[in-house]
Amino acid sequence: MEILDQTLAAIRPADLQAMADARAHQDRLTKPRGALGVLEEVAVRLAGVAGACPPPAPAPAALAIFAADHGVHAQGVTPWPREVTTQMVLNFLAGGAVANAFAAQAGVSVTVVDVGVAADLPEAPGLVSRKIAYGTADLSAGPAMTAEQAVAALEAGITVARDLVAQGNACLVTGDMGIANTTASAALICAFTGRDAADTTGRGTGADDATLRHKIEIVRRGLEVNDIPGDGDPGSRSEVVRRLAAVGGLEHAALAGFVLGAAAARVPVILDGVIAGAAALVAAALAPDAVGYCLAGHRSAEPGHAITLDHLGLRALVDLELRLGEGTGALLAYPLVSAAVRVMHEVATFDSAGVTDKDAQATLDPST
Ligand SMILES: Cc1cc2ncn([C@H]3O[C@H](COP(=O)(O)O)[C@@H](O)[C@H]3O)c2cc1C
Ligand SMILES: O=C(O)c1cccnc1
């Protein structure tokens, strides 16, 4: 609990002065005001994160893929066998997954973190072993984790974020792997927003109509069995941890810790899809200021994701109907984030470039 306590105590609100400076700087650059749209807000946000204008380049960046298995898999909520979690971890380590291709394209390093895979994994470069259990229990039959396990996973995520920042990374990127984790994500989104299971539950890796109906029922049962009220407002920290432990996954808990660790280190974290979003809801419930350190990489096709982004007040940078996870959507957004910051460092101002600023001229010569 000590690591979690220290981390929560270290999280500060985004720096409003640096954000105001960044807005003012954007307005002096040789472009019509507001012409870079959402990218201007990204640069302002990163100034708030770093407490500096211009903010430092978000490089190098590191993707951490948190992997774990799920007891709720036994309920038939996904068409894929549970073993695929382990097999995909090995695929990430061999460099063969979509996340590896996108990470290579973006120049982002890949670390895989085992927080709860239901198999013993061989030691390998790029694999960090922080296994807390061989998967969770079935969330539709009782709590998926104990509170101790949830805190241990939160702290594992914090430690991974801290280590990656200590290694010189200036931007963190979330990734996940865990067959059946869109079910736990939907349940978490209900528990932290108060929305109904029918709104938050999606097809994940390709559930058909019958499986989707069943999945919604399983999410409902999980909330009921675990006495999670429909208020969407856990209030106390112990209730946040109780709800997380009840219906979350070990990777969700670790991802929530990863977000908190990034915020405490004043480093931006690019969120991937619905799994990272669900985890960010947990992080926000523990430390509302952590949201200021998050960027929504993309908007997933899973219905719970739009609800989540809305709740967090985040705008997705990319919307390509992706529904994969692994960090793929966040990786595609990374070059946009880099470009937004590069503008702040490299683009000339009206003054420095001798370009006429229509607004400045209007002030000088009120007759025009
Ligand atoms: C081959 C394969 C690669 C993946 N990479 C990410 N996921 C994604 O799908 C899983 C969640 O979907 P559901 O809840 O429907 O099981 C997660 O592991 C997620 O990261 C994959 C899934 C599969 C099958
Ligand atoms: O939105 C996601 O991140 C997602 C969707 C389906 C399966 N896995 C992940």
Automatic annotation (TrEMBL):
Pathway: Nucleoside biosynthesis; alpha-ribazole biosynthesis; alpha-ribazole from 5,6-dimethylbenzimidazole: step 1/2
Catalytic activity: 5,6-dimethylbenzimidazole + nicotinate beta-D-ribonucleotide = alpha-ribazole 5'-phosphate + nicotinate + H(+)
Stored Pfam families: DBI_PRT (PF02277)
Gene Ontology terms, MF aspect: nicotinate-nucleotide-dimethylbenzimidazole phosphoribosyltransferase activity
Keyword Transferase: yes
Signal peptide: none
Documented EC number(s): 2.4.2.21
EC class of the enzyme, as a word: transferase
Gene3D superfamilies for the chain: 1.10.1610.10, 3.40.50.10210
Family matches, as SUPFAM superfamilies: Nicotinate mononucleotide:5,6-dimethylbenzimidazole phosphoribosyltransferase (CobT)
InterPro entries: Nict_dMeBzImd_PRibTrfase, Nict_dMeBzImd_PRibTrfase_bact, Nict_dMeBzImd_PRibTrfase_N, Nict_dMeBzImd_PRibTrfase_sf
Active site location: E326
Keywords for this protein: Cobalamin biosynthesis, Glycosyltransferase, Transferase
Physiological role: Catalyzes the synthesis of alpha-ribazole-5'-phosphate from nicotinate mononucleotide (NAMN) and 5,6-dimethylbenzimidazole (DMB).
NCBIfam families, per the entry: cobT_DBIPRT, PRK00105.1
Similarity remark: Belongs to the CobT family.
Protein name as annotated: Nicotinate-nucleotide--dimethylbenzimidazole phosphoribosyltransferase
Organism whose genome encodes this protein: Sphaerisporangium corydalis
Gene behind the chain: cobT
